Amino acid sequence: MDIPKLLFNLREEASCPVCQDILRDPRYLPGLHSFCLNCLINWHRASGGEVNLRCPKCQGRSRVPASGDLKDLPTSFFLSGFIDALAIKESDKTHVTCGNCDKKSSKASYYCFECCKFYCDECLNGHNIIRSYKDHRVLAVKDFQEKDYEVVVKRPVFCSRKGHEKEELTFFCKICPENSVCQTCVISDHAGHKVPLIQEEAEAQKIELAGLTETPKKTLNAKMKMVTQIDEEYASLFNEAKTC
Known about the structure:
- This protein has helices at residues 3-8, 10-13, 37-46, 77-89, 91-94, 121-129, 146-153, 183-189, 198-243, and strands spanning 26-28, 34-36, 52-54, 61-63, 96-97, 104-105, 110-112, 117-119, 138-140, 171-172, 180-181.
- It is an alpha+beta fold.
- A three-stranded antiparallel beta sheet has the order 8-7-9. A two-stranded antiparallel sheet has the order 1-2. A two-stranded antiparallel ribbon has the order 3-4.
- The mean pLDDT is 84.
């Protein structure tokens, strides 16, 4: 991962295309464009609340969740890491919000890589008292280096279902629309479904995408050769006409 390039473009990557502000509770549509949940709700309401949801960016249409509630759209966990990294990068200008007391903390705030939360000085003392947190890695925001930003961006993603919050999303269900699932979800809700590991599915889809792009490349090359041949024939005919 090119961290310097990522940090340079971080604000653009972590911004909502609708409100142009930093994403809040990011949700993504089937076209993989992400938006603030509230922006999607307001956008959908303004368009008449149809059964189909129109993407504000590409205008692609998708079905509203069966519940009718846009809160059931999948969360963009990957962008959540970008948002935290941006908050750390710009902490000297805007400060960050403590994940425990919700207060805007000063430059002396800290980030816990295991909790994936910011802590102010007071809440960090409480965090460090908890015995099960003794092995957590905590770093002052002002001390972040490039390698630390990479850890934040590539941090593990945990299940959002109630009671599964400590379970990492490690499987990909090829049947259900909410594709990424944890071990407990697999046992309780995905019996009989094809559920490979996320890494395995990612590699399989990379190969599939490479195959899909190979055919258009070959077609494009063939057409470019044809255009070159036509240009040469045209030049030859033009010279013959000139001679005549």
